[in-house]
Fold:
Amino acid sequence: MASSTSSVITLRINGEKYTLPVDHRTTLLDALRERLDLTGTKKGCDQGQCGACTVLLDGRRSVACLQLAVAAEGREITTIEGVADGDRLHPVQQAFLDLDGFQCGYCTPGQICSAIGMIEEHAAGWPSAVTEDVHPEAGPPPLTTREIRERMSGNLCRCAAYVAIVDAVARAAEARPDEERVHPATGAEEVVA
Ligand code: FES
Ligand code: FES
Structure:
């Protein structure tokens, strides 16, 4: 029931609609885990520092512990439960599996969602803090180990499986087909080689 401190909201998650009452202070992470039983998204620090809770909002990566559930209404939310295509794993999931990009696995859902968003950001030509040529006409920089490490630096792994994580992200990025892509910020269509 709606009140001055709560509202009934409808969240669209992995293509499904979920309607639920929430206290306005409820984070998206707590709504997913505690209210909707979508426990694939993990809680690490609960303060935006570790990346364990990373999900995709309209295709962009976002830490769910810093996002209020009420503010996620109207967004397309993708969690780790929604990245596979039926029985077919997402290429990033498959690469993590093939290259042992995890140990305990606690950070892995966040790493995978972050990598999915990161690969799209890179393909759209977004620079990172270590990109040397940031002119738009330069296009996406080579996705070197340094670039991947920087772009994935918001996702911590307590098991320190970083070497294999970087290899898995690189393999998944290489397997991404060249096609018309939409810039995630501007919405402009572009062709990325
Ligand atoms: S639990 Fe959200 S960033 Fe750590
Ligand atoms: S695999 Fe254990 S925290 Fe990353």
